[in-house]
């Protein structure tokens, strides 16, 4: 790294009257990258060294370094200083996106989120798989390293305490609603009423079968509200309902309706139906949560109820671009197809 040239570049910007000292430092480092005075992987001068060479206050230097971290141009490493993270000086922001897992509907969310942001915003994707240890590690390792955090949260008290440590004006909660202190932005879905409404609309079709089977895994990422809605529905409509922890391969039977949230379970059910020669929508019914393109096509279509994950991705991207506070509970829609 050519420190002497970098300091000269920063000082030269003082001649531009419209630049504050903070802006001089930010633009000087960007110019240093563009002119190859510094490069990716280089460690920048310490705050004390920068104070000595430029005469800027400690707070000014810290503010400039933090802005460059938010843009993803610099990264801070504990006790080791500030490093150049990228040569892309056109980058405006670095976003931490923390999701449950990369299922097909979450991929739809990501694709529309990423595409709507444009090329000058960096998005780093992490997955917690509803595992608190993973969730905790990701949050703690990335606090202060990003300009914005877009997070599909866990619902435990410990997870909420971690979210409380992030600045609310730089946080967007997506998918699941959690109650945090103060004002914060969210784009989420509602499960209890939406699930009940879907079951109720499908009641005439469900009653044609002898049993309504719901596969629900306790202590999992599956929303408890869906289970509450299922129990309320089968009682209100006098439906013969059953709750099982998981689908057992080969156990499918004619005359029943099967409802699962998990796609892997859905694929196993459909495979067994094909093996046993059972016609989906006639010999048995199938209902799924969270729609995607595959469910529109396979077995002449699987009936689902779902929010529009593409729209959720677009709305999340709009928040990132505008930083306009948002509080949206998205509408679930029943999508009737041939499976029920």
UniProtKB/TrEMBL annotation:
One family name in Pfam for this protein: Peripla_BP_3
Record's keyword terms, sorted: DNA-binding, Transcription, Transcription regulation
GO MF annotations in UniProt: DNA binding; DNA-binding transcription factor activity
The HTH gntR-type domain, residue ranges: 19-87
InterPro entries named among the record's database cross-references: LacI/GalR-like_sensor, Peripla_BP_I, Tscrpt_reg_HTH_GntR, WH-like_DNA-bd_sf, WH_DNA-bd_sf
Alphabetized PROSITE patterns for the sequence: HTH_GNTR
Signal peptide as annotated in the record: none
Keyword RNA-binding among UniProt keywords: no
UniProt protein name: Transcriptional regulator, GntR family
Lineage of the species this protein comes from: Bacteria, Pseudomonadati, Bacteroidota, Sphingobacteriia, Sphingobacteriales
């Amino acid at each position: 790294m050519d420190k002497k040239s970098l300091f000269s570049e920063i000082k030269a910007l003082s001649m531009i009257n419209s630049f504050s000292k903070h802006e001089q430092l930010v633009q000087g480092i960007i110019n240093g990258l563009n002119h190859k005075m510094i490069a990716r992987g280089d460690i920048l001068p310490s705050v004390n060294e920068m104070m000595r060479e430029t005469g800027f206050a400690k707070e000014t230097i810290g503010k400039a370094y933090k802005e460059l971290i938010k843009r993803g141009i610099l990264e801070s490493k504990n006790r080791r200083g500030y490093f150049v993270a990228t040569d892309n000086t056109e980058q405006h922001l670095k976003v931490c996106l923390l999701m449950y897992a990369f299922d097909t509907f979450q991929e739809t969310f990501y694709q529309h989120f990423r595409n709507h942001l444009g090329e000058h915003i960096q998005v780093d994707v992490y997955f917690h798989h509803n595992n608190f240890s993973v969730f905790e590690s990701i949050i703690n390792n990335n606090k202060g390293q990003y300009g914005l955090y877009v997070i599909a949260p866990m619902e435990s008290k410990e997870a909420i305490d971690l979210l409380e440590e992030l600045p609310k004006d730089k946080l967007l909660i997506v998918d699941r609603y959690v109650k945090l202190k103060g004002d914060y932005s969210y784009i989420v879905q509602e499960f209890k009423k939406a699930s009940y409404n879907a079951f109720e609309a499908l009641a005439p079709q469900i009653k044609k079968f002898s049993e309504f089977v719901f596969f629900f895994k306790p202590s999992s990422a599956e929303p408890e509200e869906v289970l509450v809605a299922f129990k309320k529905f089968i009682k209100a409509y006098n439906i013969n309902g059953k709750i099982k922890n998981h689908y057992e391969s080969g156990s499918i039977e004619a005359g029943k309706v099967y409802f699962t949230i998990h796609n892997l379970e859905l694929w196993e059910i459909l495979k067994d139906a094909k093996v046993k020669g059972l016609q989906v929508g006639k010999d048995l019914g199938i209902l799924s949560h969270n729609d995607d393109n595959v469910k529109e096509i396979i077995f002449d279509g699987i009936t689902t109820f779902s929010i529009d994950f593409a729209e959720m991705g677009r709305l999340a991207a709009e928040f990132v671009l505008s930083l306009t506070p948002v509080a949206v509970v998205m509408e679930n829609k029943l999508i009737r197809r041939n499976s029920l």
